[in-house]
What does this fold into?
Amino acid sequence: MSRPPTFTPPPCARARVLRTPRGEFAALDAVPCTAARGTVLMLPGFTGSKEDFVALLEPLSAAGFRAVAVDGRGQYESRGTGRQEDYAQDELARDVLAQAAALVPAGVPDGTDGTHEGTALHLLGHSLGGQIARAAVLMDPSPFRSLTLMSSGPAEVSAGQREKLKLLGDALSALTMAEVWDAMRALDPPEDTATDDGEDLRRRWLGNDPAQLIATGRLLCGEPDRVDELAATGLPVHVLSGERDDVWPVGLLTAMADRLGARRTTVAGAEHSPNTARPEETARALVAFWESL
It folds into this structure.
């Protein structure tokens, strides 16, 4: 579980609702003071939320990029349906394409030819969000100028994580969200952060649709290797991670980057969530990638 340093967005960002034909999505939207050089749409990971990107909003905005972080369907403050079938990967990918269209309307140049550069849309997904982002790109790469896979691997998660996800799915099928939270906290107490000894994390957990967690946990355990398909799109890709990761081994992420011909960044001192552990270093790496395009 990512633990953002705070759930309060910086002054440059506002909480808003991103309205699309596929529903409304809770978002944090940070707009630069000057003309935007591009927009980045950021998708959180499993059990995460838009707040996982709070520490990136200010440095990305200061660098001239509009940064929009969203809660996916059934995550935290975005409404869920209670039906596992609504969280199939294709459904979540279509949500991302709808979000992209809401941010950069169809027919507006995307900046690839040097015109209207501020409308260029970069897609970033953390962990589960990376695999959903990949699915959206494979469905339709045309809205996007680039894809960043942050701590998100080529296929299913590690064996140890698959075991944990199965246990969690079984628990969610038998217990209330509050009961599962109490059990998780006993095993993995929240760190001493600005999130009020875990109360913000608890509120976020209780906001999740359990059907979403069960369904996406199953996705993480059965994701096929689609790296070659992604490479075939020709979209510029950035593979970014911490120097340690227990969800996908770092060596596996590096091998994926090689297969993609992608830019590769390893953030020193970070593990599975460089966005919360080392936000300044992570933001610099992201901006350098986008500027290189």
